[in-house]
Amino acid sequence: MSGIRFVTMVAVLGLGAGISSATTACGGSSSKVALKIASNQKLKESIVVDAGGKTLYMFTAETNGTVRCVDDVSFHCVKIWPPLTAKGKLRGGNGIDESLLGTTKRPGGQIQITYNKHPLYYFNGYGSTPADKKPGDVNGQLFGGVWYVLSPKGAPITHQ
Q: Considering only 28-37, 66-75, 140-149, which range has the smallest mean pLDDT?
């Protein structure tokens, strides 16, 4: 088991047992905006969200578009953190710097949306931490000390 995966697994498992599920809308198309910027009242910051306003997160173990949140026999990262995937050409919406908008290929071939080279994910909840269900929810912020929302400049926001 890699050091990064082990540290992440320990951090996640330390927060509770069991995985709660939530339905998320992942993906996009060439005719729709993939990302936009929204003001978040809880964080008192503007953050990167999907076209529907749901919060997106980055994982600190992933650099330069390299995907590390994958499912394996011992840890089901993608059930907790489903990736934001897309097909076709991406467009940025309100406040998005299109020069920071990109994609990376996931193991298995899916195309995942990135912002400032950070692959983007939703939060499905874990243990006693509820899933993000509506725009404005940021329940995954600081999760395990390795998951963060992004600023409009593509930098992690590191406060609660």
A: 28-37
User: Do the domain assignments include residue 159?
Assistant: no
The domain in which residue 150 lies consists of 1-16+25-154
The model's pTM: 0.81
Largest CA distance in the chain: 41
Nearest to 158 by CA among 65, 9, 147: 147
Task: State both tokens at 157.
Answer: 């926001």
Number of domains in the chain: 1
- Nearest CA to 68 out of 107, 13, 12, 115 is that of 107
Question: Can you tell me which residue has the tokens 């940021």?
Answer: 138
For residue 50, count other CB atoms closer than 10 A to its CB: 25
